[in-house]
Amino acid sequence: MSSSSPVYGLILAGGSSRRMNRDKATLEYQGKTQLDRAFELASRHVTQVFVSVRADQTLDPTRAQRPMIVDSVGGEGPIAGIRSALAAHPKAAWLVLACDLPYLSDAALDYLLRRRDAAAFATAYTSAHDGLPEPLCAIWEPSAAEALADYQAGGGHCPRKFLIRHGARLLEPQDTRALENVNTPEEYRQAIATLDQAPMQLKIQYYALMREQAGRSEETLETSASTPAGLYQELAARYGFTLSRDQLKVAVNSEFSDWSRKLNVGDAVVFIPPVAGG
Fold first, then answer.
1. Looking at residue 212, which CATH number applies to its domain?
2. Which of 3, 152, 159, 227 has the smallest CB count inside 10 Å?
3. Considering the domain boundaries, does residue 212 fall inside one?
4. Dihedral sign from CA coordinates of 142, 7, 137, 111
5. What does the alpha-carbon distance between residue 41 and residue 45 come to, in Å, rounded to a whole number?
6. 133-140 vs 122-126, strand pairing mode
7. Shared-domain flag, residues 111 and 213
8. What is the pLDDT of residue 1?
C-alpha cells in the first residue's frame, strides 16, 4: 500500500474501565476530558479523527459529540475497534490511540508519523517496560485488515500479540512517559498533579542544519520542559534533529547558558550548531 494513503485518527473509547471504577473517557485534566484531549491532539496531526465505540455507547454524551465508528465486527476490545475502522475506510491508514494516555504529546505523534512505514502492517512504539509493541499508539495500515480478520477468526484477540507475530516497524520512544496510561484512581491522581503544571510559552530560534531539519528559522511554542536539556529532547523527537547535545551550545535571552538552567515563561532560546559560530 502506498504511503500516499491518507492517515485518519481513531481514539479508542470503548473500554469498560474496570480498574478505574468509572468511565476513563470522562476523566478530566485541566477542564477537558481524556477523550477530548486525545481527540484534539490527534486532530492537530491528521485530517479526520473518529471515536471508536461499542453499539451501546452511541448515545453517551461524551462520545456522541464527536464523529464515531461503531464496532461492526464481532469480538471485544481494541481489535474490534481497529478492524471496524479499517472496514469503514478501507483505503486509509489509522493513527490508533488509546484515550487514556494523558502524557501523550505532539512531539511523540510527530515522531511516529514522520517514521511511518506503509509497507509494514503497522508502525508502533515499543514499550519502555518490556520492549514489546505498543499497538494503541500506532499507525495501522490498510494491508493489516485481512491478516487481522484471519487472526481473530483463529481465536486471537490481542493487538500486541498480532504485531509480535506478524511484525511491525518498531520505534524507540523518545519520551517514555508519553506512553504511560492511567488505569487506577491512584494513577489518575498522579497524572492530575503532573499535568496541573501548566506549559509555558517560549521563543525558539534555529540555525544551519537545525533550521533545515525543523523547516523553520523560529517559532513560539508551549512546552512543559523546565530546562534547555529537556526542551532539546522534546524538539529532537519532534523534528528528528541529528546533532547530539554535545555538539551544540545553547543561549537563553541572548546569553550562553547551562543545559540545566531553569526556563521561565517568555524566554528566548537559541540552539547553536558548530557552523553557526558562537
1. 3.10.20.30
2. 3
3. yes
4. positive
5. 7
6. antiparallel
7. no
8. 43
Same structural domain, 230 and 182: no
pLDDT tens by residue, 143-176 = 999 999 999 999 999 999 999 999 999 999 888 8
Residues whose CB falls within 8 Å of the CB of residue 94, separated by 6 or more in sequence, listed in order: 7, 8, 9, 10, 82, 85, 86, 139, 140
* Domain limit, last residue, from 166, 190, 214: 190
The cell for 10 is: 481513531
161: cell is 500479540
Residue 198 has pLDDT above 70, yes or no: no
Strand ranges, E, within 16-156: 28-29, 32-33, 49-53, 68-70, 93-98, 122-126, 133-140
> End-to-end distance of the chain based on CA atoms, in angstroms?
47
- Whether the predicted model's global pTM rises above the 0.90 cut: no
Q: Which residues of 142-165 are buried (b: 16+ CB within 10 A; e: fewer)?
A: bbbbeebeebbeeeeeebbebbee
How far is 83 from 145, CA to CA, in rounded Å? Answer: 6
pLDDT at 276 > cutoff 60: no
DSSP, collapsed to helix, strand or coil, labels residue 32 as: strand
Q: Is residue 277 included in any domain, yes or no?
A: no
For 12-51, how does the pLDDT look when each residue is reduced to its tens digit (9 = 90+)? 998 766 778 788 899 998 888 999 999 999 999 999 999 9
Based on the domain organization, do 157 and 133 belong to the same domain?
A: yes
Q: Could you identify the residue written with the cell 471515536?
A: 51
Q: How crowded is residue 91: how many other Cβ atoms within 10 Å of its Cβ?
A: 11
Query: Number of folded domains in the chain?
Result: 2
Q: Which residue has the higher pLDDT, 67 or 192?
A: 67
